[in-house]
Amino acid sequence: MTWLDAVPAWCWWLIALVLVAGGQQYRVLVAQGETGTVRSELADYRLQVAERDRRAAAQARTEERRRQAVADEEGESARQKLELAQGRATAAESAADGLRGEIDRLRDGHRATCDAIATQQRQAGTSAVMVLGGLLEDADRMAGSLAEALERSRIAGQACESIMDGMGAKPSQKP
């Protein structure tokens, strides 16, 4: 008989059970260690993502402030240009009123002269001076309003272009 036969069979089962349980315990410990490593890596990754998000949000806020500053600056510039154009339009309108007064004075003088020279010529048709004076007056009014509208449109267009250039956007096509 050998020493192996001296050990009862249930002991062999107990030894096998202890070896399997010990192996499983070792696997559990190794898995827990790997889980701890993965958790720490995950925590580091979350910190990196949070920091990257914070930086991106800060950059977006900075860019938004920069663009708003450009828009505000260009808006103020356009407002000042519009005020200047309005002042010029007012001065031009005042000068045009003076010219209209001069035209009216010349018409009145022409009427008085015509009355003294020949009443029949005036009755035959409207004199050329009267017609041309009326046309000049109408053309002057129309030119003034068109010039004012054109100046406003030009200033608004330049302000939009400046804002877009300041924001870094590139228009699709320039004519």
Can you walk me through this structure?
- This protein is an all-alpha fold.
- It has one domain (12-166).
- Helix content is 90%, strand content 0%.
- It is built from four helices and no strands.
- Helix 2 packs antiparallel against helix 4 (128-166).
- It is rod-shaped, with a radius of gyration of 47 Å.
- The model has no long low-confidence stretch (mean pLDDT 81).
Topology:
Elements: H1 3-6, H2 9-117, H3 119-124, H4 128-166
Features:
175 residues; mainly alpha; 90% helix; rod-shaped
**How much helix is in the residues?**
over 70%
Oligomer: single chain
Q: Helical region count?
A: 4
Major beta sheet summary: none
How many beta-strand elements? 0
- Overall, the morphology is rod-shaped
- By secondary-structure content and strand pairing, the structural class works out as mainly alpha
The structural domain count equals: 1
Kindly estimate the percentage of residues that lie in beta strands according to DSSP. under 5%
Spatial gap, N to C terminus: 109 Å
Low-confidence stretches: none
What is the ordering of alpha helices and beta strands?
A: HHHH
How large, in whole angstroms, is the Cα Rg?
A: 47 Å
| Overall average pLDDT | 81
